[in-house]
Amino acid sequence: MEEARMARLPTTTGRVTDASSDAANRRIEADIAQSVAFHADHPELIDRRLVELDREWDTERVLEANAATLALGGTVLGILEDRRFLALPILVTGFLLQHALQGWCPPLPVLRRIGVRTAREIERERTALKALRGDFAAVPAAQSRNGKARADAALRAAS
């Protein structure tokens, strides 16, 4: 019974893209491909782009910041001005729970339309750029018998 209920919830890594429109997902994927293609021709700009990616807010962070702002504002207004403002934090936290469980909430289509990406999408571009830069060349081939050396090299390349 528990297993059947859990099967209805989307995966953590795929829930936002699953809940997003195909058009938004295609545009974001095209933007990633365009960035990687551009940086393949301009490898001297890869480091700068990696710094930009480190600073980029993903959908979770944007939703959390907006929800916290609205919930706090509604609570303060509910305490200081009118109790009816307390409906705002109730509504916002309900949407946040819906997002946590299903990957969708009312602001998500707007965020995706303006190009806010998931952490997984940001990491996909980062990994492709690191591969272009040659970061993974130091990882020995799978045929190497020294598993610890391979693992250490892989971890260094991934950081």
Concise summary:
The chain has 159 residues and is mainly alpha-helical. The protein is built from nine helices and no strands.
The amount of helix comes to over 70%
In DSSP terms (H or I, runs of 4 or more residues), the helix count works out at 9
Average pLDDT value? 91
Would you report the number of β strands?
Answer: 0
Largest sheet: none
- How far is the first residue's CA from the last residue's CA? 40 Å
Strand content: under 5%
Assign the structural class, choosing from mainly alpha, mainly beta, alpha/beta, alpha+beta, or little secondary structure: mainly alpha
Determine Rg (CA atoms, Å).
21 Å
H/E topology pattern? HHHHHHHHH
Quaternary state, please? single chain
Low-confidence stretches: none
Overall form:
elongated
Secondary-structure blueprint:
Layout: H1 2-7, H2 15-19, H3 22-41, H4 46-55, H5 59-80, H6 87-102, H7 108-113, H8 119-133, H9 147-158
Question: Mind explaining what this structure looks like?
Answer:
- With 159 residues, the chain is mostly helical.
- 70% of the residues lie in helices and 0% in strands.
- The longest helix has 22 residues, at 59-80.
- The radius of gyration is 21 Å and the shape is elongated.
- It starts with a helix and ends with a helix.
Keywords:
mainly alpha
